[in-house]
Amino acid sequence: MELLRDLAGLKMQRDAPLRDYTRFGLGGSADWLVDADDEAEFVEAWQRLRTAGVRTEVIGGGSNLVVSDDGFRGVVLRFTGAELREEGTTVWAGAGSVLQDLVDFTIGLGLSGIHTMTGVPGWTGGAVYGNAGAYGRSIDQSVARVRFFDGVEVREMGNAECRFRYRDSTFKDNKGWIVFRAELELLRGNAAELRTRADEIRSVRDAKYPPTMKCAGSIFKNLLLAELPESVQSVVDPKVVREGKMPSAWFLEQVGAKGIRNGGIHVADYHANLIYNAGNGTALQVREVIDDLKARVRDRFGFGIEEEVQYVGM
To answer: Which positions are catalytic?
Structure first.
C-alpha cells in the first residue's frame, strides 16, 4: 500500500471486515478497504493498483452484495463523494451519497420524482447502476446525465446512452465503469404532500423489510409478463400482475420457497422473495439457497429467474 500513501485524501483500512459494509452482515475481510471522496484521487488510486497488478474490486453501499466467507484478497475501493446540490429543479448527487439522504433532500426542496424510493437502502451510485425503483417509479425517469469513469477517462453521457431497462443499465453491462455523479431533473411538488406519501411508503417497507433485518430486500428481479413463455403466461394469476410486471415471489411461492432454511440463512415465511441472515449465516448458504430457488423455478416453469445481488470474491 506504499503505492497510495502519498494520496492524502484517501482513507485506508487494513483487514477490513466487509460484513460491516453490507446489508447481509456476512462475509470475510478485505486485505485493504480504500475510500476516496475525490474523483481525481479515486482514478489515480485505481490506475496505480491496476498498473501494479493488485487485485481490485469496486463496491458502493453494500446493500446488494454477498461477500465470500473467505473475504477478498486484494483492495476494495469505494467512491464516497456524497455532495448534494440543487439549482431550480436540477439536483446533482454524488455516487457516494446515501440514497435516503438524496430522497430527503429532494423532498425538503419540494421536488418530486424519487420520493417513492424512501427506505430503499444503498447509495446513489448503486441506484443508478441497478436502476433502482419502487412504487411505480425508477430512478431512470429522473436521470438527465451520469458522470462516470470508464477505466480510461472520466466522461458523461445522457439518459438514452445509459440504456436503462428494468433494474438494469449500461453500467451493469460494463461492470468496470464507475459512477461518480448523477444529474437528476425533477418536478415541482408540495413538500408536505411528498413527505406524507414518503412516510406512508416507508411504513409499508419497514413492515416488510425491518431496518434491523440483515437482508438485501427482494433477492430476485420481478419479471415482465410479456417476456415470459406463453405456457407460463397462461397459468399465472392475473390479479398479481402490476404494470405489466409479474412478481418473482409468485413463482417462488408455487415452488415452496417460504420458510426454507439453510443454517442461518432463511427465506421469510411471509415473503417468498426475501432471504435474510438470521444471525450466523454464511455467504455459501446464501448462494446455495439462491441456486436452489432458481433450480426449483426452472424445473417447474421452464424459465430462469435472476437475482439482483452481486457477488464479491465468489
So the answer is: 167, 218, 308
- For the chain, which domains are there? 11-79 (3.30.43.10), 84-193 (3.30.465.10), 210-312 (3.90.78.10)
Distance CA 42, CA 36 (A): 5
pTM (2 d.p.): 0.91
pLDDT at position 239 is: 86
